[in-house]
Structures are given as structure tokens and as C-alpha cells.
Amino acid sequence: MTTAPNHARIDGHLDLAYLAMQGIDLESNSIDRARYGVNFPALGEGAFKLIFATLFTEVGCDEPWGYANHMDVDAAARAARLQLRLYQGLESRGVIRIVRTQADLLGWNSPGPIRVVILMEGADPIESPQRAQWWFEQGVRMVGLTWAKGSRYAGGNAAPGELTAAGKDMVRSLDALGMIHDLSHLSDQACAQVIALSKGAIVASHSNCRSLVPGNERHLTDETIRAISARDGVCGLNLYGKFLANDRVATMDDVARHVKHVREVGGAKCLAFGSDFDGGFTPSDCPENAQRPEDAPKIEQALAQAGLTPVELEGFRSENWLRVLRASLPKN
Predict the structure, then answer these.
(1) CA 44 to chain centre
(2) In a domain? residue 115
(3) Within a domain: residue 180?
(4) How many domains does the chain have?
(5) pLDDT tens-place string over residues 143-173
(6) Which of 37, 46, 153, 196 would be 145's cystine partner, CB 3.0–4.6 Å?
(7) Does residue 201 sit within a domain?
(8) Which residues contact 122 (CB under 8 A, 6 or more apart)?
(9) Does residue 1 form part of some domain?
């Protein structure tokens, strides 16, 4: 079986504002394809009609997306607001349409601006649990409490630790707003606590299977995959080669292995794209034929050859992310 190139797709994790802050023209047809894989023309060629675009901020970094330390609240919030204004500016020019409600999903796969769900990757920019509402009003619909290095709210995969008292309050605030919780990058301790404490939707926007690439908290345990499945969430497939195979070059077979493992542990309803293309790595760091949005049909063809059914492929392509959004977003 082959998949038609015009199937509309959803990608659960792309750092577009981060790329724009590096000087990448998100609308150009002439970016350096060896260094960068993602912008709007590339997404169009891959038939990606809805994406989750991040507000990515990095602690201990003096770049425009960075801030000095976890207590440097104003700088963290300023860095995220810069990215938020970028997305809002793109929307004002008709380049994108920000998804805020279930109504914004109508016709998502029709011609027109690409739909964008705003995902905050690392919650240090949210000044306090009480301020979460302001970010929701600005269009943020998914929050991961930390990036790798931890935050005021939670330990990260490179900075182990539990939820802080403020982090527990933040989980409750996000629940009250209907925000989706993103487990990617949480430490094991914090991940288990978010699962236990939260009442809202939980997903891993861009994480693979730890049983296949052991030794790194960045990847999901089978227990976490089962918890996500029990809450009707998804696990977004990350296409960074080092997250697909340890100590060797990753291949399309590794892509299929991770997808099939998620299906085995959590069921086909958990399958989804969450590529993280250009999230700090180049197309050549991904498996051959799985390096750019335009490669999506090749990925799906490989998954079909590995045994996924047409219904399972449709879930992976778009329907599973749509289910999460329809269950979580306000109606209007």
C-alpha cells in the first residue's frame, strides 16, 4: 500500500518561532535545505495542514529565546512573548490561523492558512499559576512544565526533580483552563506526579520509547505510554535519529519499531506525528527518507509495509491528534 501525497496531516511539535529567531524565513522557498527542513512551503509540500508550534525558551542562554535562570521570570516571559507576537503577526497577515476553539478545527484540512496550536515548551515564562489564564487568553493551548533543564515548576529529563509546590498549583491552574499537559521533557518523578495530579488531557508531543533506546529519561517508559493511553492521549513520534537508535545511524526500520511499540503498549489510538524537525538538529540527523515534512508519505508507506492498517495510518496521520483537540478545546 502507498499513501496518497495529498492526505492532510498534523505534526505535534515544531519550533517555528525558535527558527525565526535564528533568522530563518518561514515563508521563503529558498532556505538552506541541508541545514533546515521546516518552514511553511515545506509543510505545504508535505500536506501538513495543522501543526503544534512552540514557545520555546531556554534557561542559561543569552540568545533571544533565552533567560538567565529559573528565577529570571521577567526575561523568560519576555522571550516567550516575542515568539507569541511572531505567531500573532503571522495570523494577522493571513499566513496562519491560530486554533483556540473547537470551531477553529472546522475545515482544518481545506485550502487556506495552516492551522496552528500554540504549545509552550517549558513553563518558566508563566509568571505564576494565576497568570496561566493570561497565556490561555493569548492562544496557548498546551503546556509542558519544563524543557530538559528543569523549571521553577518541575524537574526535567536533564535536571531530575519532582514537581515544586508552585508546579502542583500550576497543574491545577492548567486543568481549570482546559490546557493540554505535555509530558515530553519531564523527569520521571515529575512525569508520574503530573499524571497522578492532573485531571485534563495528557500527551507526549515529541517522545519515543525508552525500551528501544534505554538509558535516557527523555524517552517514555512503557508505564507512561500506558498512562497516556488510559487518558486517551497520544505519543508524538520524534524523528531525531539519536532518539530512534543508540550508538548507530537510525533508519526507517527504527521509525517503524517505535511506532509499532507504541501501538503494542498503548494501542493505535496513541500513534501520532511529533517530528520536532529542526528542533536543534539538521535534516541529516534524521533517518534517510524521514528528514523533512515532504517525506511524510514515505514514512507512512514504511509504516504500512510494517503492518499498520489504513485506519491506523489515518490515526497516526491526523485523527488521533484531532480526537485530543476536540475533547480539550473550548467549543467557541
Answers:
(1) 18
(2) yes
(3) yes
(4) 1
(5) 999 999 999 999 999 999 999 999 999 999 9
(6) 153
(7) yes
(8) 56, 57, 58, 59, 144, 145, 146, 147, 151, 185
(9) no
